UniProtKB/TrEMBL annotation:
One Pfam family this sequence matches: Arrestin_N
InterPro entries recorded: Arrestin-like_C (IPR014752), Arrestin-like_N (IPR011021), Arrestin_C-like (IPR011022), Arrestin_domain-protein (IPR050357), Ig_E-set (IPR014756)
Residue span(s) of domain Arrestin C-terminal-like: 194-310
GO cellular component: cytoplasm
Residue ranges annotated for the Arrestin-like N-terminal domain, each copy included: 52-152
Name the record gives this protein: 1378_t:CDS:1
Organism taxonomic ancestry: Eukaryota, Fungi, Fungi incertae sedis, Mucoromycota, Glomeromycotina
Length: 329
């Protein structure tokens, strides 16, 4: 089977770009969504840790129309779609899976009624198995709110008036005590060099700085250290055809050169703001690794990998397991 590696641009769905409160009201856009209260997102709660909901209001400004709006039903749906595409030879493959389909009837009547200016609050409970949204050039996980207004007339029943907006959803991982404990790897059996690698934690969040340390002892005089490359790497897979590989990209990468006479190296890993969260959905899987590559002359290179969990930050008051407060070293 041909493996196709695509360059991935890591970016979460922009909250401000999909913000319905930014949309001007005009006769061509008399239906719009707003957030709940003073929040700047539809999502409340911390998905993955606590109950999380999608809530807001649907507004209909019938006064902006030239003719009365007659309707007998308004239906609101929340869907989650996993989509991916790749190439096998000259064949382009697209796969799409709908993992969530919730519906609420906001208005219903036995007969068509004139709909004046109105507001319909709504709340959708997200299942605990839901995952965060993101988008790359090879795949995406997206949530969409869609309102359907069934107006008077046979064609209006078949083709209802629709209004939709994308909803960013953020996933959070509850860090265990072990995720905030240092982890060490080592290799002392090689006859030409020995190394040990230290990582401060395995649970990381966007905009965070992670401390790592690499110790290298050269045992042969002809072996030289040429450079060290390290960073956080993201892997995206689709769960079809034995976990189809969709792409990989360094979310952050640093290179250090001219290190022949230095044995201990402090590696500071800065996690970018737009890094995708770790995802284990029914169709798309995203994993992360801290990777270190030491380029040597006179022998084979050193390669180190350490899996990590990436999720959005949570408030300090939620960082409890029983009576133990989780703190970073």
């Amino acid at each position: 089977m041909l493996r196709t590696v695509r360059k991935i641009y890591l970016r979460n769905i922009d909250v401000n770009a999909s913000s319905p409160s930014q949309t001007p009201i005009n006769p061509k856009n008399f239906i719009y969504f707003t957030f709940s209260g003073t929040t700047q997102t539809f999502q409340s709660g911390y998905l993955g840790i606590t109950d999380s909901t999608i809530q807001g209001s649907l507004h209909i400004k019938s006064s902006l129309l030239e003719h009365p709006l007659l309707t007998k039903k308004i239906l609101l749906t929340l869907t989650c779609t996993h989509a991916a595409h790749w190439s096998v030879g000259e064949t382009h493959v697209r796969k799409c899976l709908k993992t969530l389909d919730l519906a609420q009837t906001l208005f219903t009547s036995n007969a068509h009624q004139v709909l004046n200016d109105c507001e319909f609050p709504f709340v959708f409970q997200l299942p605990s198995t839901a995952v965060g949204s993101f988008k790359t050039d090879a795949c995406k996980i997206s949530y969409q709110l869609e309102a359907k207004i069934y107006r008077k007339g046979i064609w209006y029943q078949i083709f209802p008036l629709k209004k939709s907006t994308y909803v960013p959803v953020f996933w959070h991982a509850f860090p265990t005590v072990g995720m905030y404990q240092p982890i060490t790897q080592s290799n002392i059996l090689n006859s030409k060099y020995q190394w040990s690698f230290y990582l401060s934690q395995t649970h990381i969040t966007p905009n965070e700085e992670i401390n790592a340390r690499l110790n290298i002892t050269i045992l042969k005089p002809h072996v030289l250290i040429k450079s060290i490359e390290y960073g956080l790497k993201t892997y995206v897979h689709a769960k079809v055809h034995a976990n189809k590989f969709l792409g990989k990209l360094y979310a952050t990468k640093t290179k250090i050169e001219s290190l022949n006479f230095i044995n201990e190296h402090n590696l500071l890993i800065r996690v970018p703001e737009n890094v995708i969260s770790t995802t284990n959905g029914p169709f798309i899987r995203v994993e992360h690794k801290i990777k270190v590559k030491v380029v040597l002359s006179g022998t084979s290179n050193i390669r180190i990998e350490q899996p990590v969990i990436v999720s959005n930050a949570i408030p300090a008051e939620l960082l409890h397991t029983g009576n133990l407060l989780l703190t970073k070293n």
